[in-house]
Design goal:
This is Lysophospholipid acyltransferase family protein. By secondary structure, the protein is an alpha/beta fold. It is built from eight helices and nine strands. It has a single domain, classed as Glycerol-3-phosphate (1)-acyltransferase (3-Layer(aba) Sandwich), CATH 3.40.1130.10. The protein has helices spanning about 15-20, 25-40, 70-80, 100-105, 120-130, 155-165, 175-180, 215-240, and strands spanning about 45-50, 60-65, 85-90, 110, 135, 170-175, 195-200, 245-250, 255. The longest helix is centred in the last third of the chain and has 23 residues, at about 215-240. The model is unreliable at about 1-10 (pLDDT under 50).
Length: about 260
């Protein structure tokens, strides 16, 4: 990913006063537009923990996933806290006529599930991190199937990326996006501007895993720690306590958190 051109004060409102990270023209133009459109669906979001984001250098952001809207909410939070996000997103989105062009132009990363291109996304994410950029990866891999919308079993990609690069991993818990845009018909869609809360935590301490052999046991243990940190932030965002277990979609029930990996 190219570093792009320096950000200039061309935004209306506060974004031009808080985000000076280099990016490309598409990002510079798109984010303020999305910011305004998002307010048609949500109230002005409540953000906590922006100070936990490193101002420069590589960062891996790991949020919970509850709605097709929440990447917009997370991206907005990151941009208005000084960092431009590069999401790992389903490859089929990149083939949609308008959205696909915007995603490619904004240097987002397609994820091909299965086949010989399956690991390309992690390689591309590594290159972005070594270039000092911000990567957003959803450890759950898709919108949660938990019936109460808590974080579910995770894949190990986020942990592998963190252990391979040593980049700091920042957990984000967010709530409200699934009220505005319900996933999978879990509730009727109503055009109402609901509240959004985002809690951004401190970097997850994975130092005891760094330098160890990349064994399944190490990667799984790091993944569990990442999901525990995300869940803690979701508890803050929701103002509620998560269940003891974690939803395993293959089994369609909650299992012990140390077993909740896909």
């Amino acid at each position: 990913m190219s570093a792009g051109v320096p950000v200039k004060r061309i935004y209306r409102g506060e974004l031009g006063q808080v985000n000076f990270e280099p990016t490309n023209r598409v990002f510079r133009t798109l984010v303020p537009v999305v910011h305004r459109l998002a307010r048609l669906l949500t109230k002005t979001p409540t953000w906590h923990g922006g100070e936990n984001l490193p101002a420069t250098g590589p960062v891996i952001i790991v949020p919970n996933h509850i709605s097709s809207l929440d990447p917009v909410m997370v991206g907005e939070f990151l941009a208005y806290n000084g960092r431009w996000p590069h999401f790992l997103a389903r490859a089929n989105l990149f083939y949609l006529p308008v959205l696909g062009r915007l995603l490619r132009s904004a240097e987002q990363i397609p994820v091909h599930r299965g086949g010989r291109h399956a690991r390309d996304a992690l390689f591309e994410a590594e290159r972005a991190l070594y270039a000092g950029e911000v990567i957003v990866i959803y450890p759950e891999g898709t919108i949660t199937f938990d019936p109460d919308e808590w974080p579910m079993a995770a894949h190990t990609g986020a942990a592998r990326l963190a252990l391979a690069t040593g980049a700091p991993v920042i957990p984000i818990g967010q709530w409200g996006a699934s009220i505005a845009v319900p996933p999978r018909g879990i509730r009727p869609f109503k055009l109402q501007r609901g509240p959004i809360t985002i809690e951004c935590g401190s970097p997850i301490d994975l130092s005891d895993f760094l330098g160890q052999p990349d064994t399944p046991q190490v990667v799984r243990a790091a993944s569990v720690r990442i999901m525990d940190a995300i869940t803690a932030q979701v508890e803050l965002a929701r103002g509620a306590k998560a269940p003891e277990g974690r939803w395993q979609p293959r089994l369609k029930r909650r299992v012990a958190r140390v077993e909740a990996l896909s």
